[in-house]
């Protein structure tokens, strides 16, 4: 199942002189939508509506949606081609249409190995006001007669005695209430894995598409009929659905909206319920029997019947399927998800919207440049321009161009240090070899380098002179004699190498007065040094040798932006 439910609904309505209908389908918690439906108000084109038969159907797929889609496109077409249909033997015609649809799929190589199948509940309403409902599987049709339900079909479950006998006689078995431990229904279109006993006729197979057909003659008491898949009937019984439709028709709601409301009422708030109730695909089709009335007159008739309690007494509210706590949690989560979806839609519209006005903002220009280059360059105002791979392409030299600030690196790290001359090289550490003549021969004068800023020249010269690349490397004798500072830290993630640490004017041991607590008048020796900040404006201050008797001090730092 999905991590969050798909509640998008596909709804349509229509009518002719005899019927008005609404149909809606919803994917729900399932990974895919496997249902299909078919409606033909004029089954025998090009005859006039008043003289034509009408066809309605719902197909509930399982194991995939291909068979359900094929049935939705072809069952009614196969029906009108049957000889029995032309002879007005409609019961036999509908039976032949179901079995013939299986034959058509078996003749198509695309379906011979297709593992999917579908239930089918179809209603053929003839010009003489007779309803023929053919059903194979556990989809269902019901009729409202003055508000009271009349079944138009019967579910085909493995537990039914007649179904069990056929399954066992064909070589199948029933386990955990399922045919061969797999299917929870006993009749379906497709499912050819269960139709391979070639010594038996199609109506005798483990799973058969042979339908049961129910016939009903329409009267003035008939109000509407409903066709729906088991995603509805698992949650509400037949009378509950009739009550729901009747109540909302009396309130004047459109037919399509009533279909959507029933599905919303059946939809599970989560997937933790027993037997997956409310988590299936849902499709429902409601057909109003106008009986010579207009649609508005039919609505008024139902409203008057409900108000006067004519016929069956329709309750004021539907039954509650799920606990209040589950529903409350569901509404909160759904509101949050819908808010996130609205935010994503807003951002998507902003990304695709053209630059606004004669003077677009810098943010709009940045988005336009980035999208035009297919994301090849990321631009951040006030910093360098770098490619998505992290290589600096054009460095921001704004800090070095300002003469009113000290020459400090603006995105590098460092630590306080003590006099480099006091370091002694470790005995077990191998010293760097001095530069030989070959290396000296390849050393290039920095004056010949073109278009380098002063800071870049300093960094390049330090590297060429062989200064160590790690702050924990031991100092060389030459560095000890000249009291050069330790080597700069390694390259930063932006591809730059920081300049060397510079000692304060007057030597590294220059003393300054700090105000300390609790003894504000007491002057203490301090450790001082110059350090640098990295890209996130943080630094690690380390006092290598704190003076004896020192106490916590208040330090004021001035940082260039």
UniProtKB/TrEMBL annotation:
Catalytic activity: O-phospho-L-threonyl-[protein] + H2O = L-threonyl-[protein] + phosphate
Annotated EC: 3.1.3.16
Biased amino acid composition, Basic and acidic residues: 341-352, 454-474
Record-linked Pfam families: PP2C
Span list, region Disordered: 341-361, 418-523
Signal peptide: none
The keyword Manganese belongs to this UniProt entry's keyword annotation: yes
Gene3D superfamilies given in the database record: PPM-type phosphatase domain (3.60.40.10)
Biased composition (Pro residues): 485-501
Domain of life: Eukaryota
Record's compositionally biased regions (Acidic residues): 427-441
GO molecular function: metal ion binding; protein serine/threonine phosphatase activity
Record key words, sorted: Hydrolase, Manganese, Metal-binding, Protein phosphatase
Domain PPM-type phosphatase: 20-289
Cofactor(s) required for function per UniProt: Mg(2+); Mn(2+)
CDD domains: PP2Cc
Class of enzymatic activity (EC top level): hydrolase
Manganese listed as a keyword: yes
Similarity annotation: Belongs to the PP2C family.
Entry protein name: protein-serine/threonine phosphatase
Species annotation: Multifurca ochricompacta
């Amino acid at each position: 199942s999905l991590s969050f439910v798909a509640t998008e609904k596909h709804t349509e309505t229509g009518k002719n002189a005899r019927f008005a209908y609404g149909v809606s389908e919803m994917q729900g918690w399932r990974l895919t939508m496997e249902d299909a439906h078919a409606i033909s108000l004029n089954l025998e084109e090009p005859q006039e509506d008043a003289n034509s038969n009408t066809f309605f159907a719902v197909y509930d797929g399982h194991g995939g949606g291909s068979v359900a889609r094929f049935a939705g496109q072809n069952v009614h077409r196969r029906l009108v081609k049957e000889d029995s249909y032309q002879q007005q033997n409609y019961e036999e015609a509908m039976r032949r249409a179901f079995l013939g649809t299986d034959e058509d799929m078996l003749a198509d190589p695309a379906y011979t190995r297709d593992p999917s199948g579908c239930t089918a509940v179809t209603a053929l309403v003839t010009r003489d006001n007779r309803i023929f409902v053919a059903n194979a599987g556990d989809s269902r049709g019901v009729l409202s007669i003055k508000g009271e339900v009349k079944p138009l079909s019967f579910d085909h479950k493995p537990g039914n005695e007649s179904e069990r006998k056929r399954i066992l006689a064909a070589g199948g078995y029933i386990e955990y209430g399922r045919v061969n431990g797999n299917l929870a229904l006993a009749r379906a279109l497709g499912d050819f894995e269960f139709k391979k006993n070639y010594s038996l006729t199609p109506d005798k197979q483990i799973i058969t598409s042979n339908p049961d057909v129910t016939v009903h003659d329409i009267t003035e008491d008939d109000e509407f009929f409903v066709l729906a898949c088991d995603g509805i009937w698992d949650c509400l019984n037949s009378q509950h659905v009739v009550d729901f439709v009747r109540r909302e028709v009396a309130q004047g709601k459109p037919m399509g909206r009533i279909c959507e409301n029933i599905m919303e009422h059946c939809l599970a708030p989560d997937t933790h319920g027993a037997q997956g109730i409310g988590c299936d695909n849902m499709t429902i089709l409601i057909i109003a029997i106008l009986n010579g009335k207009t649609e508005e007159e039919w609505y008024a008739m139902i409203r008057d019947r409900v108000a006067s309690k004519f016929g069956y007494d329709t309750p004021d509210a539907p039954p509650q399927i799920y606990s209040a706590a589950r529903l409350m949690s569901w509404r909160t989560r759904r509101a949050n998800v819908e808010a996130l979806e609205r935010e994503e839609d807003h951002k998507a519209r902003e990304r695709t919207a053209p630059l606004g006005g004669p003077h677009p903002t810098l943010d709009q220009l940045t988005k336009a440049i980035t999208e035009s280059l297919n994301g090849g360059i990321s631009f951040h105002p006030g910093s360098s321009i770098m490619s998505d791979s992290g290589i600096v392409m054009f460095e921001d030299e704004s800090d070095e161009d300002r003469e009113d600030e000290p020459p400090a690196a603006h995105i590098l790290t460092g630590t306080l240090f003590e006099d480099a001359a006091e370091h002694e090289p470790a005995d077990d550490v191998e010293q760097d070899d001095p530069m030989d003549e070959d290396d000296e021969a390849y050393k290039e004068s920095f004056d010949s380098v073109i278009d380098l800023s002063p800071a870049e020249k300093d960094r390049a010269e330090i590297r060429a002179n062989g200064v160590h690349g790690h702050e924990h490397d031991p100092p060389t004798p030459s560095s000890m004699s000249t009291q050069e500072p330790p080597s700069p830290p390694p390259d930063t993630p932006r591809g730059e190498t920081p300049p060397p640490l510079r000692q304060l004017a007057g030597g590294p041991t220059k003393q300054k007065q700090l105000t300390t607590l609790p003894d504000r008048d007491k002057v203490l020796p301090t450790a001082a040094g110059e350090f640098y900040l990295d890209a996130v404006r943080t630094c690690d201050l380390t006092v290598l040798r704190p003076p004896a008797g020192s106490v916590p001090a208040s330090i004021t730092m001035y940082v260039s932006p």
